[in-house]
Every structure is written in structure tokens, then in C-alpha cells.
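Q: I'm writing a short methods note and want an example of a predicted protein-small molecule complex. Could you take the sequence and the SMILES for zinc ion and return the bound structure as C-alpha cells? Please keep the output block clean; save any remarks for afterwards.
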Amino acid sequence: MRALVFEKRGIDFLEVRDFPSSPVRDDEVRLRVKLASINPVDLMAIESLPVSPLPHIPGSEFYGVVEEVGEKVTHVSVGDRVAVYTRLFDGTCSSCMRGDQTYCVNGKRVGVESQGGYAEEIVIPGRNVMKSDLSEEVLSSLPIAVLTPYHALRTVGVGVDDTVVVLGASGNTGIFAVQLAKRMGARVIAVTSREWVKEYADEVVDYPTAEEEVKRLTDGGMASVVVNSLGEKYWDLGLKLVGNHGKIVTYGGLTGGKVSLDVNKLYAKHASIVGTNRGNMAELLELLKLAKDLKVKVHRYYTLDEAREAFREFKHGNRDGRIFIRI
Ligand SMILES: [Zn+2]
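A: Understood, no commentary inside the block.
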């Protein structure tokens, strides 16, 4: 099979080459990968995260069609199009038994600690795939870009009484955080400079005027939940936008992870900061129903052969929407 592979660090060392196919064990399936997307974690895998094995195939978010099924796998058949939970888990440790597969003691991230999906095929445990007829773009956004904000919003219990402010609302996860919070009944204020987000959110405000606009829109109450995956650069703003008894939820630090925090502002507002990390299998199953009409803003589709260019654009380009790699 052909796969995007690297041995040395950096986008410049990515290359598409023939790679040996893996055999399918009893409890595994072989997928023909159809569409993959690019996430910050994929760029980090290429540039800095410890990865294994080497040579390494990155790709943590993708969907595929079942091509071969191990003897013990009964819930999917050859030809099924499937959503993929891209974290390997053993299903038997105490975390898994609690349904917290993210923290499986033997867990691995697909595309980081195991071979990923920027390849014509991938062999993956049957327990990681579920049949689905969602659109291609939604399916290849589910494992991280959709699941991560969904888990975050669920963790802080978003519901009809909430006003959720999403920073970075046009970004990889932001676009889905906005749509999912709406589906959970909340009023959603998106913070972004992109006009098109108006299609998804109740209100859209831009960064320079975000504080006064959120104040105006909430009659001074501010947000009950602020989603801030942007890190350092926008941390102060997030703290300004959260209301009394509000929650700031974070699952990333795109602009840096070191945050200076005025504790006086935190306790004066009785505010909480909550960190969350991806999501679990049960949530992915819920999303197979909830994500039906999710809209995906597409910046561009690349081919596997153009993957290097795709990563350059992801890193340096003025991207507006998601970048996909068609395989
Ligand atoms: Zn486990």
C-alpha cells in the first residue's frame, strides 16, 4: 500500500512511499482509508511529539470502508463505511471499564504511538470502528475535531440555561463546538473575525470588541461557559468573558500553554477552569446520531501525494476551514 511516511522530523521529510500491509488478526479490521483531515496533533506528531514506530505514518483523524474482517469481529462487514475511534484501548483496564477509554492504561493514539491514517489502508481493532452513513467530511472530523469539543461541553454540563462563548469559533474544533453547543440547547456567541460563522452561531463578535459585545448581548451576565482552546494569547479574554459561577473549559493551547492568571479575578467570579482531553467511545456513539447535519467548512482537499503541501498550508497558510487529504 501507499502511505505518507517520515523518519526525520519536519514537513520537508514527509514522503509517500510503498509500505508493507499488516496482517489482520481475529479481533481486527482492515480499512480502505477514504478521507483524512489535518489536526494540530498531526503536525505535532511530524515535528515534535515522540512517535512510534519509525518509519512513522501520521494521521489521527480519518474514516474508511471495511475491506477485511477478523474472525471475531461481528458488528461490521466488508463494504461498510465506518467511523473510527482513533485511540487504541484494551477494553479491560479499570479506566476502560469505567468507559474512560481516553485514559486506558495500555492506550495509544493512532497516528502518534501507532501507525496512522494517511495511508491507503490501516489495520485497527474492530472495537474502534462503527458503521455510519454520515457525510465523508463529518466522518473524518469525528475522532478529534468533533469529539473533543463534544466531550468538553458534556463535561461542563452545557444545557438550555447556558450562554456558551466559543473563542476561535472558525477553527478546527471551534466550528463544531458552536454547532454542538447549539444542539445541546445553549445560546452560542462565537468569537471570530470570520463572517461565515454567522451561519452557525446565534451571535458572532470579533476579538477587539468581544468583551463589550458579550456584555451587551448578555445584559451584563456574561458567559456561563467559555470554550478556550487557544491558550496563552486569549486566556485573559476568556477570563473577562466568563460570568459569575461560570466555567472556562480548555482542551488545547494553540498559542502556547503558559498562562498567567489573576487569581483575584478567578475567585471574585467564583469561576472554574476545567481541562478536558478528547472523548470516550460512548460519546462517539452519541455523535453518530447527533452529528447528522453538522456542517463542515472546507478550506481545501489535497491528495496523498500533495500531503506535504497540505501541511505547509496548515502551518503557514491563511486557512479558512478544514484541510482534508483524499486518499
Ligand atoms: Zn484500558
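A: Remarks, as requested: Residues 142-155 form the longest helix (14 residues). The CA atoms of residues 9 and 17 lie 17 Å apart.
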